[in-house]
Amino acid sequence: MKAVGLKRYLPIEHDESFLDVEMARPVPKGCDLLVKVHAISVNPVDTKQRAPKDEVEEEPRILGWDASGIVEEVGEGCTEFKVGDEVYYAGSITRSGSYSEYQLVDERIVGKKPSSLSFAKAAALPLTTITAWEALFERLAIDPEASEINKKSHLLIIGGAGGVGSIAIQLAKWAGLTVTATASREETSTWVKKLGADNVVNHHESLKEQLDAEVDYILCLNNTDQHWQAIAEIIKPQGKICSIVENKEPLDLNVLKSKSATFVWEFMFTRAMYETDDMSKQHQLLNKVSKLIEEGHLQTTLTETLSPIEARTIKEAHKMVESGGMIGKVVVEGF
């Protein structure tokens, strides 16, 4: 089968940062589905995994985690899907990725593709949607069914125009919250407003001075180190903070003590990486999101599409993500 892989971890401009390769087609066993990949999306985690380092792979390593496609074969333990089903998923960081014609993925982290969306539009959603859903409704413990209660609560999303922010705004508004999103350019401000943000503030300026009052929840999607002091200042007493961006310097948790504020991480690969007892919750939430899309509550966050899936277009997508200026998601479709 065709695939796009790497053997060395190189700057994206290097001729061999990605290679077009031929790989053996895998065979599904147990709870695995063999999916014929139709479209993939590139995320910051892709670029971080490819970031330059001295390692050399004996066999080409296949990156990529967002994907949509059609089930080609099923393992003997599969009960949720059958051959021919259209699916979307974010996979596992510990397994071979989606930059390949066929991919194995555990059905417990796979959802039914929204029928109203193309494969490209669906591929833009899984990783960021799982991240946003888990961050809001599990880590921050917001009840998505309690819209009347949520109307009294204020959520700040730091980094609203990226992939996770773009879906988090929509999910938070569906749940009834007042949402303030940060954006620093005219085009990103327009984008987050279009998605439903009630207010927009600039994360390059003082957040405290731009907000009328402290907020109940903060979802940090951009540079935890840079925003940490501001986060501590603007969170309400007994408020909750969630970040998806790893820190480079130690975080001073003492600044939260007097407010009895909660801080929690979100990493959407945790369930698949550790095969947790509740791993199938990702299957359930992706199916729930499909339903919300069909009902018109959510929309895809796709903004850029490249074709076909090959080393050249994967390189281009990585460059776009690494630029730091992406709005929404970039998808590469078709082998």
Automatic annotation (TrEMBL):
UniProt cross-references to Pfam families, sorted A to Z: ADH_N (PF08240), ADH_zinc_N_2 (PF13602)
Key words of the record: Metal-binding, Oxidoreductase, Zinc
CDD domains: AL_MDR (cd08252)
Residue span, Enoyl reductase (ER) domain: 13-332
Record field: transmembrane: none
SMART domains in the record: PKS_ER (SM00829)
Matches recorded under InterPro entries: ADH-like_N, ADH_Zn_typ-1, ER, GroES-like_sf, NAD(P)-bd_dom_sf, YIM1/Zinc_Alcohol_DH_Fams
PANTHER family hit by this protein: ALCOHOL DEHYDROGENASE RELATED (PTHR11695), RETICULON-4-INTERACTING PROTEIN 1, MITOCHONDRIAL (PTHR11695:SF294)
Family statement drawn from the similarity comment of this UniProt entry: Belongs to the zinc-containing alcohol dehydrogenase family. Quinone oxidoreductase subfamily.
Record's protein name: Zinc-type alcohol dehydrogenase-like protein
Organism of this sequence: Alkalicoccobacillus plakortidis
